[in-house]
Specification:
alpha/beta; 6-stranded parallel sheet; Rossmann fold; 10 helices
């Protein structure tokens, strides 16, 4: 019997390589308008997070940040497939998923800077992005906690017969947390309209997921235990994700029950800005950089006949929007100290302003 560490020492895991063929979904039945929208989303996520990183290095961002550079295709593919009133639940690595729902960049960036014009008035920061108006029901710092909360939103939609679907994104490390198994079992028993999306970026914080997981595919190989199909998708190809997302959302929306998707992707950096990611084996990062979601998608658009100048124009428009959002965020006021007493609950007989 081969266990995860049978053939190598801890930390000396095998290389995890990306797919070989970036053209596999060139002929997918996806309108060009949708493809151009997803490319713009990919650029917004990438350029936004690069700017956030730059501002963090300038000590302008308050607290830490967890970037999803290299993982953007998952958020774009699902974001373009979701209905405007569907729900998004994300982890602390939630910038891309927040932007994918149409939340303005200024509000997100200002929140990172702790400014009053931030999404949460500067109170939440990078790890707690929320915009109920856009269906973004929170970014959660406690690993696995939001899967059970997503079930609650899905149950509400089921009860109200609203047709809404809760889409819950989480990392590969979450699959070894008890809440993952509890949430899947509960959703399956009650046939809740929820789609669970494991963003398998190969690492749970500083440890390769393969080193401490008994199955090769941490999410998909456990689906059968809850009566679900094992679904694996190329998480660096926005078209592949979009097609799977459309089917998963239709399945959940129809009343057929939950769906579990494992999207294979790769984070370019470390766990957070405090992590240089030196534990990655030689050659692994370079291989995935060559299969970057934006490189893959730009190449597809060009093969489909979109002029390079038109693609460059999208890049430039996004760059301008990021610059405008940056200035608006930096020029935003600091929160009023009295804001510390708002948005709190009454407890223990004390009266708090809200």
């Amino acid at each position: 019997m081969n266990l995860p560490l049978s053939n190598h020492a801890y930390g000396e895991h095998d290389l995890v390589m990306p797919p070989d063929d970036p053209t596999s979904h060139d002929d997918a039945d996806i309108p060009l308008e949708t493809r151009l929208r997803m490319y713009r989303m990919l650029q917004e996520m990438r350029q936004f997070e690069k700017r956030a990183y730059d501002m963090f290095m300038q000590q302008l961002v308050k607290g830490t940040t967890h970037l999803s550079l290299g993982m953007e295709a998952v958020a774009a593919g699902f974001g373009a497939a979701m209905r405007s009133d569907d729900y998004t639940f994300a982890t602390y690595r939630g910038h891309a998923h927040t932007l994918a729902r149409g939340v303005p960049m200024e509000g997100v960036l200002a929140e990172l800077l702790g400014r009053a014009n931030g999404l949460l008035g500067g109170k939440g920061g990078s790890m707690h992005l929320t915009s109920v108006e856009h269906g973004v029901m929170g970014s959660y710092a406690i690993i696995g906690a939001h899967l059970t909360i997503a079930n609650g939103a899905a149950w509400s939609a089921q009860y109200r017969r609203s047709g809404q679907v809760a889409v819950c994104f989480f990392g590969d490390g979450t699959t070894n947390i008890g809440a993952f198994h509890e949430a899947l079992n509960y959703a399956a028993v009650f046939r809740l309209p929820v789609v669970f999306v494991c963003e398998n970026n190969q690492y749970m914080e500083y440890t390769a997921i393969g080193d401490i997981t008994a199955v090769r595919r941490p999410a998909a190989d456990r689906a059968a235990a809850y009566g679900l199909e094992p679904i694996v998708v190329d998480g660096n190809d926005a078209d592949a994700v979009h097609l799977v997302a459309a089917d998963a959302l239709e399945h959940a929306r129809s009343g057929a029950g939950p769906v579990l998707v494992e999207a294979l992707t790769y984070r370019h950096g470390g766990h957070s800005r405090a992590d240089p990611g030196k534990y990655k084996p030689p050659g692994e990062l370079e291989a995935w950089l060559a299969y970057d979601p934006i490189t893959v998608y730009r190449g597809r658009l060009e093969r489909l006949g979109v002029a390079g100048a038109d693609i460059d124009a999208i890049d430039a428009e996004v760059a301008s929007a990021v610059d405008e959002a940056t200035e608006a965020a930096k020029n935003g006021p600091l929160p009023d100290p009295q804001a510390a007493f708002t948005d709190v609950w009454a407890d223990g007989g004390h009266t708090w302003r809200s």
